[in-house]
Amino acid sequence: MKPLFLFLVTLICFSCKKQGYIQITNAQDYNSFLHTSNRERYTTALSEKDFWSRRMKPDSSGVGELGPLAAAYNTLFETTGAMEYLKKAESLYKKGIEISANNKDSYVRALARTYIAQHRFKEARVILEESYTGISNKHATEMMLFDVYMELGDYEKADSFLGKIKNNNDYNYLIRLAKWSDHKGDLDSAIKYMEKARATAESSGNKTLKVWTYSNLGDFYGHAGNINNAYQQYLKTLEIEPDNPYAKKGIAWIVYAAEKNTAEANRILDSVMIHHKTPDYYLLKAEMADYDKDPLAATLYTNKFIAAAEASAYGYMYNIHLIEAYAETDPEKALLLAEKEVRNRATPETYHLLAYTQLKSGKKTEALQTIETYVVGKTFEPMAQYHTALVYIANGMDKEVVSLKKELIDASFELGPSLTEKIKKL
């Protein structure tokens, strides 16, 4: 029996390699999380919302109820994706700033978080900088200012504030140091700092910290090609929080990108979309349909994404995805949107999209200037490298594409099989 077993295992492994995929996941690991009725965070937040809403009396300021009520709305947004909850939290935090006598800066930071979630980074920067100059918790505000400056591409200021909060034993510093290291292209260090943050989160016993760290460390492992480690982190996330949509989407990506199993990846996504309704799921479905050579389904899902993402309540949140979606069908519209996004936050990540839309609009010289000025050497993100390669090819710089193509093939898991097929043809 033993030799036969080994032969079958060898045969299966050979078959997997021959078909271009590796088996990482096992549906038995996560099936119980897909159709779970355990929506503990949602139901708790709903109860909290009802409780604190009843406590808010029309004839009182309600200052004591504002914070916990807004926090409940925030959690409802996180667990459902429904923008009305985030908008409600935003209005409550604004009221807190207006009427609170002693706790204004905590409401400012909370409001800034809602702005960041909506990609309203400049507004977040303005209120945080104003709060920082007054009576405030300097350390807490410094951490958030680092976050905002990173999102706005003001890396010099971000580095300055990272120095202000330096503490190698502090969880909040470690996760920011990991983000900084990733930005600098040092993924190994980023993972090292995140692993140290994970140890801190586990020793603290803080469920929220563990969930955040496991899920984000899963992303870092995926970027590094440590797919099995990424999978294990997503599973650990779900063991604590069975309805976590981020971890489930991470597993769906592994099933699609590493195992090429679009049917199973769609099954996972379908289970998530029952309760968590955000437009980006449609984009992943469109990408998988494209990989399956089903252009009608790909177009259908892309159109569903566009319709949902252009809803006014989302604001800037899905601009980057909309740019990519419009680049093929309406490049002029994509270009206008990319220019708007660069004005919103001028980062290498937004500039490579601007270059891509310039190229699609027939402005290859402008695209090359954008790439060389704002992208090359300033980001190591694979999509930026891909768009750089396209711009180089259009400008007859084929030699420069050779090394980029190798890097892109090495990042095939992160880019996905559909795009990897296109890269191989460059």
- The CATH class of the domain at 170-242, by name, is Mainly Alpha
Strand/helix succession: HHHHHHHHHHHHHHHHHHHHHHHHH
Helical content, roughly? over 70%
Number of helices: 25
Can you give the mean pLDDT? 92
Describe the main β-sheet briefly: none
Description:
By secondary structure, this protein is mainly α. It has a domain at 170-242: Alpha Horseshoe (Serine Threonine Protein Phosphatase 5, Tetratricopeptide repeat). It is 77% helix and 0% strand. The radius of gyration is 23 Å and the shape is globular.
Short description:
The chain is an all-alpha fold. The chain has helices at residues 2-18, 27-34, 40-55, 63-80, 83-99, 104-117, 121-133, 138-152, 155-164, 171-183, 187-204, 207-223, 227-240, 245-257, 262-273, 280-291, 295-309, 319-329, 331-344, 348-360, 364-374, 382-394, 398-410, 412-415, 417-424. It has a domain at 170-242: Serine Threonine Protein Phosphatase 5, Tetratricopeptide repeat, CATH 1.25.40.
Give me some keywords for this one:
single chain, 426 residues, mainly alpha, Serine Threonine Protein Phosphatase 5, Tetratricopeptide repeat, 25 helices, globular
Question: How would the blueprint of this fold be written?
Answer:
Blueprint lengths: L1 H17 L8 H8 L5 H16 L7 H18 L2 H17 L4 H14 L3 H13 L4 H15 L2 H10 L6 H13 L3 H18 L2 H17 L3 H14 L4 H13 L4 H12 L6 H12 L3 H15 L9 H11 L1 H14 L3 H13 L3 H11 L7 H13 L3 H13 L1 H4 L1 H8 L2
